[in-house]
Amino acid sequence: VVDAILKTKRFVAAMSSKEKGNNLVKKINSLIANAFVKREEKNLVALLLLTRTNSQFINSVLNRELFIYCTKLVKTNRKCFLRLVSTLVVELQNKDGLDWTLMTESFFSVIKNQKTVDKNVFEAIAYCCIMDEHCKIENSHLNILWDLFQQHEQDCSPEESEEISQNHWILVEEIVEHMLDENRNDGDCTELMLCLLHSYGPSLCEKSKVPPLWFEKVVNFVVTMDVNATEASKVSWQDLVFSCAKSLRYSSESAKQIETSCSKGLCDLITAHLGSPTSMLKRQVWQACAILVTSFGWSWTEFNNKPEVSSHFCIWTRLAVGEYELQLEHASMLKPLLYDEIILEACGHVIMASIGEMITEADSREEGKKCFTPEMLLHVRQSFLACTRLTIEFVCSEIPRPLNTAVTKVLASFLSEFSIWDDLSKSVKCEKVLFSVNKILESNNLEMMPALAMIFVSAEESPERVQDIRTAGLFGDQVLLYFESFFSRAVYSHPECIEFACVALSSYFTLANHPKEHGVTLKNLILLWIEKRLQPDFQNCKGCHLRCALDCYMFLTDDDILPQHALSITKAAIYHASISQAE
Length: 583
Fold this sequence. Notes:
Oligomer: single chain
Radius of gyration: 33 Å
Number of helices: 30
Strand content: under 5%
Number of strands: 0
Shape: elongated
Order of helices and strands: HHHHHHHHHHHHHHHHHHHHHHHHHHHHHH
Helix content: over 70%
């Protein structure tokens, strides 16, 4: 009878309607009853039939009686029954009035001695633990769950492992929060939780729009860790915090949550490791610090409305400059065992974030807002100038290795904000600065464009400065080739530098007194850039970028008559720029 029913197409179609489905179930129950079938067998048939229905129908039909019968089927420890119950359990959407505790205990009692468990059974156990509000996860349960997690990871293909079910992630979070709330300090349990978090913690942070609640608890747990804990255990827990911090996604909500929940503990941990020359986690902590200050800014370090933001900004900036200088020294002396390119990159990001904060601070000072103290600004400025001097010396030296991108970005950031004739003249000669710029331009590094614009513009009213630039070779064909390289590559990268490029290009031709004919190739590249940026793929192109490119193109065109093709492009660009400006 069951086989005949399951093979009937009309049954599946009828189940799409709740009313028809109920009538069909009544007829099936009557048929089974008249055939003198036992009550348990009748329930089993009902469960089998439910597996052919949808989630909505299962939630409406599966009552307390059938749910209790499901727990009995689980206790039989037969694989077919486990699969059957698991298929139904995961479809129950927050259904109340069911004995989830009994179901959870039934599953744990039968799988503790099993070496392998089907994927749907694992998902059912995860769902039961989530639904069971009174579930007290014992250490034995944790061991079982951990084995299931590992088995599930091994059985999944690479594609499936990236799409692990929501129940899986929720269960991990519930287990961690439960264990941290219980404040379990026994070695086995703590070690198990550490393994669980190292495997899933960073991924959970990356998937969450805001930092998970357990992240705050982990930070506080690490900060207040038992003094008797082994050094290896402390390092492993701190490594976990930094790994998770690197994976946090930025949003205004996540920044606010960090600021209000765990900023003090996180700042204390980072400061302790940044200031320790023997830290085993130097690379991790610098990466975490760089990502946090780059993505979240510096405001999250200001907890409880106290001025610690200033102290952390100063401490971390000066430590970053010191570590950055140390790594440059290792690189210049060719000490591969001491040189760490990842740390150099991270320190460079912290320094650039500090420069951005200084610019913001200057704007705040003009608006009359709370600013850093003069002593703090003086210390940071001295660190910046020393860092710039060392970077220029490193670039000018003959190092048999390509320049690290962090070095060029840091130098570009400094030269974009500091005048080489006014601010840097006391610490490094302008000839050396211009030589370092010329050397970086040889590598076609596009990040140098803002610095190049700053140098050319600041020299416009001084013949002596123009002569310095000419002596350094920055009016030669190499710079023209750099401009050409920029506009040929800037279609898909560095759109934020286009305004600097246009300003630098206009100043270049004006100061060098080059005839416009030298810019024919460059003019065509700019027109091509405008044409491509007008395509549908670049509808988010800012009107100001188009306007600058148009002005630069017309500057190079001078009095020439535009070809028809160029004329149509410029008209379209003018229209698009005006629309963007109006919006």
